[in-house]
Amino acid sequence: MPARYDVDRDALEALLDDQPAYRVRQVWDGLYKRLLEPAQMTELPKSLRDRLSSELQSTLDLVTERTSDGGETVKFLWRLHDDRTIETVLMAYRDRVTVCVSSQAGCAMGCGFCATGQAGFERHLTTGEIVEQVVRSSVRAKDANRRVSNIVLMGMGEPLANYDNTWAAVERMHDDLGLSARHITVSTIGIVPGIRRLAGERLPVNLAVSLHAANDDLRDELVPINKRYPLTALSAACRDYLTAKKRRLSFEWALIDGVNDGRRDAAELAAYARPLRAHVNLIPLNPTPGWPTRGTPAAGVRAFRDRLTELGINVTVRRTRGSDIDAACGQLRETHVTLTN
Ligand code: SF4
Fold it and tell me: What is the mean pLDDT of residues 99-122?
């Protein structure tokens, strides 16, 4: 049975070929504009609602929903049809509402300081599984009289390693859910061919690169994919993306005590970021079981930020969102998911 948001418009037409043509628009609008379950589409005959409820099933079964930050952050844990679990985080700010979306169950990139990476790869998410995270979060936001405005593909997984499904989901978010491309950010650990493909797409989304080190020796250690796509190749792909898309580039930098938080690290980062006019987001790293390091203490975070500012770099220290939701799990998985725009 097709999953609800894996059905594209042509497939929906085929599914409704025994119905008047306007039913396709009604159902499509119900799913994407009004964010309804088939059973809630009361303009449809009851028999059709029942049929759609069984033929267009939801893919996300809510396991837990946990709120923090005075209700401003909601972390969802979903179970998929094959019992895999993924997370989505909804974050309300004064001026925007952001959803942080997962693109894979697990991740194959093997970054040693990341709980998702340590757990390994399970499978790619389908387009519908990615889109439905946004829809379900949007319903939750709507209940609080807010509207989702920003999407960051920065949850579990490496979006550009699941390129086709991720990009189809981005197009659905833009074309059907009505989100602006300038409010959608694709995050990557630095998959160079994926960045180059993105540069050829029609939608100019923002690009966020999880950098964490700006010399190859250290980055090889922290982010193993750097051995395949080293920093020179990565900066060339970023530059070409900026030229093609004229969008914002940001570098994410998880600050690890004594590893990548020194003056030399700041100088290397500044030298790397400056020609690309990249904005740097500093992420205070939570300790991770299985990785014998700890995050840079607050004073060190401030010093690193100040050094970058002196070196002419635009820098933000990400505010920890959801840090009281599940202090024992997560780590960069937690950080990756919750410390977003
Ligand atoms: S940091 Fe990101 S890319 Fe690296 S293992 Fe974790 S989820 Fe994957």
Answer: 87
Q: How far is the CA of 215 from the centre of ligand 1 (A)?
A: 19
DSSP tag of 320: P
Question: pTM of this prediction?
Answer: 0.92
Compute the distance between CA of residue 252 and CA of residue 239 in angstroms, rounded to an integer: 17
- How much is the pLDDT for 28? 98
Nearest-angstrom CA–CA distance, 7 and 3: 7
109 lines ligand 1 (CB under 6 A): yes
CB proximity list for 15: less than 8 A, separation 6 or greater: 2, 7, 55, 56
Q: Are 280 and 270 in contact (CB under 8 A)?
A: no
226 falls in which pLDDT band (50, 70, 90)?
A: very high
* β-strands 73-79, 85-92 pairing: antiparallel
Query: Mean pLDDT across the stretch 252-261?
Result: 93
Token reading at 132? 């439905």
Query: If you ran DSSP here, which 8-state letter would residue 288 be given?
Result: B
Place of tokens 């097709």: 2
* CA 108 / ligand 1 centre spacing (Å): 8
Pocket test for ligand 1, best of 89, 103, 111 (most atoms within 8 A of CB): 111
- pLDDT tops 90 at residue 56: yes
Atom of ligand 1 lying closest to residue 118 CA: 5
Query: Is 80 a residue whose pLDDT tops 80?
Result: yes
